[in-house]
Amino acid sequence: MNSNEIHLLNKIEEKKLEKGRPSGIWISADSLAAAVLIESTLVTRSKNYYCTVEVSGKYARGMMVVDKAFIEKKPPNYTIVEKVDVSLFERMLIWAAGGPYYKEWVKRNCQELNNSE
């Protein structure tokens, strides 16, 4: 995404990007989680799993463990988001930074797509 808002965010987090993300890719998990709560259509693929916070030291003390292998044989209690509509997320970030309302952009682009068919 090439916008003034993202360039500003990248400058703010430059040190973190240099240390933790050598590729320079900016990922904001908290923003993404909030966006999913606001706009559920952002999620394009998800799966349900049993998850728990492991406190005994059996697997990974103090971390959330996702039972993708179904070892515990317990019913799913979390939905894990695996893929999102990146374009919509970008529009939501711009909206959050004071840009145009993201749903208007989505509606306009869907109409343009339908008209071009």
TrEMBL record:
Pfam families xrefs: IU_nuc_hydro (PF01156)
Highest taxon in the source lineage: Eukaryota
GO molecular function, one term: hydrolase activity, hydrolyzing N-glycosyl compounds
Inosine/uridine-preferring nucleoside hydrolase domain mapped to chain residues: 18-89
Name under which the protein is recorded: Inosine/uridine-preferring nucleoside hydrolase domain-containing protein
Provenance organism: Allacma fusca
Lineage: Eukaryota, Metazoa, Ecdysozoa, Arthropoda, Hexapoda
